[in-house]
């Protein structure tokens, strides 16, 4: 399945799902995202790889191999060739990364597991089609394994996300290029009034959210307590009060 988004000034984004069959009698569904900059193919595309059947390390290996192949096609159209290549060579790429994926997954206490965990705080100006918009954000967070909060307090709308940095970058591309809302005439439109307030690595004092939730707060104090409970007091103080001015 191919989904095309056409940003006005930021190039083209392709979301492609590739089903690679007959590998250890298991179908491998690769979720690929290609962001083609305006001067593509003279410039390499940004590539993101996700799969429920592969580990994060394996997805990274697939991405690295695709970028290696992309360099061989610089200055010529390459997306179709890259898709064909990974369909033919996925088995070999996974075998090469076997040494990594056979290690015990460090999901618990090792500091290395936090290397790729980042945090993103976004501010939205408004939501006209709120119900549809919320469902879309929830689906993106689920698909990209991101946790955090979609927070409403009066006219303030914030999205706080935690997860793998590459997935957060993919979320940003979706947020900026998809028709997630409607304009004043009711026509579907892209999000044009979004601000990235903060993008940073999760620190030891920050609490890791276990899921993504949509929450509404009746007062600024309630919203502040949410940030404080997550060890994000400084983040709140720096970015949220100015939004009230």
Structure description:
Keywords: Cytoplasm, Nucleus. This is RWD domain-containing protein 3. This protein has 245 residues and is α+β, with helices and mostly antiparallel strands. It is 34% helix and 30% strand. The chain has seven helices and eleven strands. Strands 10-5-7-6-11 form a five-stranded mixed β-sheet. Strands 1-2-3-4 form a four-stranded antiparallel β-sheet, with helices on both faces. A two-stranded antiparallel ribbon has the order 8-9. Helix 1 packs across helix 2 and helix 6 runs antiparallel to helix 7.
Topology:
Layout: E1 2-5, E2 12-23, E3 26-36, E4 46-50, H1 56-72, H2 79-96, H3 98-101, E5 117-124, H4 130-143, E6 147-153, E7 156-164, H5 165-177, E8 181-182, E9 188-189, E10 194-201, E11 212-217, H6 220-229, H7 233-239
Parallel strand pairs: 6-11
Antiparallel strand pairs: 1-2, 2-3, 3-4, 5-7, 5-10, 6-7, 8-9
Helix pairs in contact: 1-2, 6-7
Strand order of the largest sheet: 10-5-7-6-11
Please trace the helix and strand order, writing H or E for each element.
EEEEHHHEHEEHEEEEHH
The total number of structural domains is 2
- Which segments are poorly predicted (pLDDT under 50) over 5 or more consecutive residues? 1-6, 98-114
Please describe the biggest sheet, giving its number of strands, its sense, and whether it closes into a barrel: 5 strands, mixed
Number of strands: 11
Helix-strand category: alpha+beta
Arithmetic mean of pLDDT: 80
Number of helices: 7
Tell me the strand percentage band: 25-35%
3D shape? globular
Supply the CATH class of the largest domain. Answer: Alpha Beta
**Could you tell me how far the N terminus lies from the C terminus, measured between alpha carbons in angstroms?**
45 Å
Main location: cytoplasm
Keywords: Cytoplasm, Nucleus
Domain RWD: 1-93
Protein name: RWD domain-containing protein 3
């Amino acid at each position: 399945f191919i989904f095309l988004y056409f940003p006005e000034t930021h190039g083209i984004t392709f979301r492609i799902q590739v089903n690679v069959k007959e590998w250890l009698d298991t179908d491998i569904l690769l979720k690929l995202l290609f962001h083609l900059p305006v001067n593509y193919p003279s410039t390499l595309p940004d590539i993101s790889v996700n799969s429920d059947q592969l580990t994060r390390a394996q997805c990274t290996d697939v991405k690295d191999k695709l970028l290696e192949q992309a360099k061989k096609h610089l200055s010529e159209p390459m997306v179709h060739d890259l898709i064909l290549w990974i369909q033919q060579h996925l088995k070999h790429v996974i075998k090469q990364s076997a040494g990594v994926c056979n290690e015990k997954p460090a999901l618990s206490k090792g500091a290395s597991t936090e290397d790729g965990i980042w945090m993103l705080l976004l501010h939205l100006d408004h939501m006209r089609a709120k119900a549809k918009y919320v469902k879309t954000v929830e689906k993106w967070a689920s698909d990209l394994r991101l946790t955090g909060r979609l927070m409403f307090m009066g006219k303030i709308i914030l999205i706080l996300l935690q997860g793998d940095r590459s997935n957060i970058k993919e979320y940003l591309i979706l947020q900026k290029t998809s028709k997630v809302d409607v304009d004043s005439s009711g026509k579907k439109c892209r999000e044009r009034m979004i601000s990235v307030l903060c993008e940073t690595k999760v620190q030891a004092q920050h609490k890791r959210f276990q899921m993504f939730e949509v929450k509404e707060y009746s007062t600024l104090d309630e919203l502040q307590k949410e940030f404080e409970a997550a060890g994000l007091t400084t983040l709140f103080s720096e970015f949220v009060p100015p939004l009230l001015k």
